[in-house]
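Dear colleagues,

As part of the handover before I leave the project, I'm documenting each prediction I ran so the next person doesn't have to rerun anything. This entry is a single chain, and its sequence is reproduced below.
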Amino acid sequence: MNREKAKTILAEADLLVTNSEVEAAIARMAKEITGQLQDSDPILLCVMNGGLIFTGQLLTKLVFPLEVDYVHATRYGHETNGTNLHWTVKPQLDMKGRTVLLLDDILDEGVTLAAIAAYCRQQGAAEIFMAVLIEKLHLRKVTPGMRADFYGIEVGDRFLFGYGLDYKGYWRNAPGIYAVKGL
């Protein structure tokens, strides 16, 4: 993948969710999360790199005491198919007895989020919640019926990019949610 191919990917992609629709979904999620977690002294755990933009947009709308940490675990790298989970950075905050909210760009098959949630349980987290910008609708979840506790937008089973999601390392910065042509 190079710069010119990346430009072509965006030019040919289908815009599924506009920037303003994404912002409205994040604002709605912030209200839901505030209603459920504002009294729990939670740790918000950003799943890098995909969760970065979503987390940044969400954080300023959560006006209650919380701590933020991050984890970098991935199955994709710059590929379009996931493989084994690779841990780059594990969280640093002590989770023992705490409520943890995992923040990621997408719940696709759920392998990465399930593994991170299991890690948090092993570290003694009292409660674990998942918040994702995109919940992909299909039947290939690692656990049948798996859903995020908080989600912004539901989409069909296409290869997506934008607002944190990438296509072969590019277009995490695209302002909206796009589907790659033909995928």
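The longest helix spans residues 19-37. The radius of gyration is 16 Å.

All the best with the project,
I.
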